[in-house]
Amino acid sequence: MAYAYANGGLWGLGNGLVGSSLVVYLAGAYGAAGFAVSLVLAAPRLVGVLRLATPWLMDVVGNRRRFCLLTFFASSAALLALPVLSAPHVLPNARLSLAALVLLWTLYHLLEFLGVVALWSWFGDLVPSAVRGRFVGRRTAWTNAGRVVGMVVGGASTWWWKTHGQAYYGADDSLWLGYAVCAGCGAALLAGAVWPLSRMAEIASPSGVGQSNRRRRWQETWLPFADRRFRRLLVYGGWFSLANGITGSAQLLYQMQILEVSYAQRLTLVGTSRAVQSLTMPWVGALADRRGNVPVLVVSQLLVACGLLFFLLATPEHRWWLIGAFVLWIAYAGTNVAMPNLMLQLGRRACYASYAAAWFAWKELVYALSTLAGGMLFDGMSRHFTPRTWGVWRIDHFAALFLLGWILRMLGVLWAARIRE
Please, are residues 362 and 51 in contact by the beta-carbon 8 Å criterion? Predict the structure, then answer.
């Protein structure tokens, strides 16, 4: 379990250095337009449906540990190749450079997604259920803390390059190089995160990796969707992703365009909220072991939902109300611990990989589609929605979307309460 914590910390550090924001800025430095940026954000989540093939692919490799090592190494190699192959003047034109960036970014995520499914099935067999909440809480805390450090280091290094490094390099069009170096360092850390996994104990899987026939694997692929207890968790996970994705564009644009929150200020708010989450996650995991995951999930979902109300109070003159949202969003610590713990608890031990694949594939697919739908809804409402006044409140398209998001997230409390441990 200690090796799993080390893996989580290193993985979080590398992931923080190479988040979606960095790749979007890198694509922008290559001249990406709106569609290309949307593709960078949506493509990895859409191909995440291929996670369902993980049990089949593990049978081909024949060993769960070996499968994890291969997929995580290959994903870090794809990420390392991203800034090299997509760099200016490597390929004949900018369009091909952007295509290489999107393709390698998607391939990196797909390989990592496959490894994550196998890893969680490994955790399910490795960690006793009586202390699994503590384990998930501590590992998630290490991952989150590493991600915060990576975000800070990545933000500081790219800012330094933009303000000072280009002058030393002696080129006006070298902004991409600062982002590329940051991506390369992140890829190296992700590769280093594989070493603790190579030291982690391998336990024979009840699912019989490398032994099951195709008919059984096909049945196991769809079993999570037919399992009534697990289906309640899938309903909640889909609703959770829908509620978050539908207002994602509006939240980001409101901070950028209306409140004029700078990138550094947003990084501070997000980083501080996640840092506090890391401190609370071990305690949340222990609480889930003692009191159950569903109470933790219900309370966390309620607090997360109320965070959107602070967007209604925040104005350019009173931007400090926004802090309240990020304070309440510390409650994501509860959802980030309880959801994967319930995924293993409600799954059948004989096919943990199939349950993990179904959970991650379904949740990410709904989030990708709802994010795209939310962007289209925002564009339509910004053109056709007529602002209305209700007492001292002025309801414009931003406020209407925030109210919709609050209602959807509050309904998520009811879906969470229906889950039976």
Answer: no
Interval 290-340: pLDDT, tens: 999 999 999 999 999 999 999 988 888 888 899 999 999 999 999 999 999
Give one DSSP letter per residue of 117-184, joined into a string: HHHHHHHHHHS-GGGHHHHHHHHHHHHHHHHHHHHHHHHHHHHHIIIIIHHHHT-TT-HHHHHHHHHH
pLDDT level of residue 287 (50, 70, 90 thresholds): very high
User: Are both 142 and 227 inside the same structural domain?
Assistant: no
Query: Which residue segment(s) compose the domain that 254 sits in?
Result: 216-421
Question: Do 10 and 63 belong together in one domain?
Answer: yes
Element (H, E) at 362: helix 352-384
For the chain, the residue count is: 421
Of 190, 211, 232, which residue is a domain's last? 211
Among 71, 83, 70, smallest CA distance to 30 is for: 83
Is 239 or 176 the better-scoring residue by pLDDT?
239
Calculate what percentage of the chain has a pLDDT beyond 90.
Answer: 45
- In three-state secondary structure terms, 203 is coil
Q: How far apart are the first and last CA of the chain?
A: 24
For residues 251 and 114, state if they share a domain.
Answer: no
β-pair partners for 388: 395
Domain boundary among 211, 237, 259: 211
How many structural domains comprise the chain? 2
